[in-house]
Amino acid sequence: MTGELSRRGRGRRAIVAASVLGPLAAACPRSALAGAQAEEPLADSVRSALAAAIADAAPPKPQFAAIDERLAYLRWLGAMSDRLRRLNNELVTRVEFLQTLWYESKRSGLEPALMLGLVQVESGFRKYAISIVGARGYTQVMPFWARLIGDGDAGRLFHMQTNLRFGCVILRHYLDRERGDLFLALGRYNGSRGRSEYPNAVFGARRAWEFSPA
Questions:
Q1: Which of 120, 132, 144, 148 would suit a FRET pair with 71, their CA atoms being 20 to 30 Å apart?
Q2: Residues of 65-74 as b/e, b for ≥16 C-beta within 10 angstroms?
Q3: Cα 97 to Cα 87: distance, rounded to the nearest angstrom
Q4: In terms of C-beta distances under 8 Å and separation of at least 24 residues, what long-range contacts does 185-191 make, across chains too?
């Protein structure tokens, strides 16, 4: 019929579209998954501990007890930089981001691959991303956290290290609250505790960032 693709033509177009758009879709967050942590009452001791964790402004300079650990880190850094190149072609920016994410992940006792997966789902690695509910930056931190445990300046959530630190500290807090249950902690981070969509999305994204130094 004129003006209408045949079934074979439609199938071919779908394959082409998937091959072109698939990687971009994987890299860009769906709005339904954007961070929407719920503001909850915090005990004074918890607020103080979280505030102290945020306040330490040490630069992301990793320390290694052995040369093998340093070499493993450098191999990880090189591999992750290569994987991230399709989203950011500026080497210096990529390396700075990965160094900071590694440092903040380790500082909070989290896997870098997990946090890379979370950033991919939350913001698609966009530093200035803002969700429809107002979550900000790489890890889509809600502005109320700046008031609860920061200095009150939500604009600082667009600062790379500040945002990654908030994201890691908040997820660590939720993981502790859920007694190590990462599925529930991720749901709480997203404001969808008990639902599977968000945790499964992060787990799926994490697989693309796993790395074995061997």
A1: 120
A2: eeeeeeebbe
A3: 12
A4: 186/118, 188/37, 188/38, 189/35, 189/37, 189/118, 190/33, 190/35, 190/36, 190/37, 191/35, 191/36, 191/37, 191/38
Task: Decide if 2 is inside a domain.
Answer: no
d(CA 76, CA 69): 11
> Residue 100 sits in which domain range?
7-207
Q: Is residue 214 part of a domain?
A: no
pLDDT tens series, the chain, 214 aa: 334 334 444 343 333 333 333 343 344 444 435 556 777 777 777 778 788 877 776 667 788 889 999 999 999 999 999 999 999 999 999 999 999 999 999 999 999 999 999 999 999 999 999 999 999 999 999 999 999 888 889 999 999 999 999 999 999 999 999 999 999 999 999 998 989 999 999 999 999 999 987 6
Which pairs from 104-108 meet CB under 8 Å and 24+ separation? 104/60, 104/161, 104/164, 104/165, 104/167, 104/168, 105/168, 106/62, 107/165, 107/168, 108/53, 108/168, 108/169, 108/171, 108/172
Looking up tokens 């007694």, which residue turns up? Answer: 179
Pull the structure tokens for residue 60: 């992301």
Residue 206, number of CB atoms within 10 A of its CB = 19
- Asked if residue 1 is part of any domain, the answer here is no
